[in-house]
Amino acid sequence: QVQLIESGGGLVQAGGSLRLSCAASGRTISSYIMAWFRQAPGKEREIVGFSTWSGYKSTYADSYADSVKGRFTISRDNAKNTVYLQMNSLKPEDTAVYSCAASRTGGGNYDYWGQGTQVTVSS
């Protein structure tokens, strides 16, 4: 019922920046938990970060893996039903296929996934 399409991947030099987009259609995702994952060749998929809505605080809160904290930022544009991943100070070890995912209920279960976009960081 929800389709997610990532874009913005590509080749970038170490120290550079890249912004990934995840456009959603079919349902409004403003109240969904939205997450970014990545998977490098020969490695298991790992979560990069996620964004949750707090109705009581009327704001979004986000959390990040230690490996990217301070360098990556998740943001949302509800008018466009889109979530972003701003990636700064990129390192070669950030090279991976990046995917966005949506969770309706939380608990670590993600109901919808995008197709993924390749990010390659050269040294």
Task: Tell me what the structure shows.
This protein is mainly beta. The protein contains no helices and 11 strands. The chain has strands at residues 3-7, 10-13, 18-25, 33-39, 46-54, 59-64, 72-77, 82-87, 96-103, 112-113, 117-122. Strands 2, 4, 5, 6, 9, 10 and 11 form a 7-stranded mixed beta sheet that branches. Strands 1-3-8-7 form a 4-stranded antiparallel beta sheet, with no helix packed on it. A hairpin with a 4-residue loop joins β5 (46-54) and β6 (59-64). The N and C termini lie far apart (40 Å).
Secondary structure layout plus pairing:
Layout: E1 3-7, E2 10-13, E3 18-25, E4 33-39, E5 46-54, E6 59-64, E7 72-77, E8 82-87, E9 96-103, E10 112-113, E11 117-122
Parallel strand pairs: 2-11
Antiparallel strand pairs: 1-3, 3-8, 4-5, 4-9, 5-6, 7-8, 9-10, 9-11
Summarize it:
By secondary structure, the protein is mainly β. Helices cover 0% and strands 54% of the residues.
DSSP summary, beta strand count: 11
Structural class: mainly beta
Instruction: Give the topology string: H per helix, E per strand.
Output: EEEEEEEEEEE
Distance between the termini: 40 Å
> Residue ranges: pLDDT <50 for 5 or more in a row?
none
Approximate strand percentage: over 45%
Helix content: under 10%
* Principal-axes shape call: globular
Report the biggest beta sheet as strand number plus sense, adding barrel if it closes. 7 strands, mixed
The Cα radius of gyration reads 14 Å
Mean pLDDT: 96
Number of H- or I-type helical stretches: 0
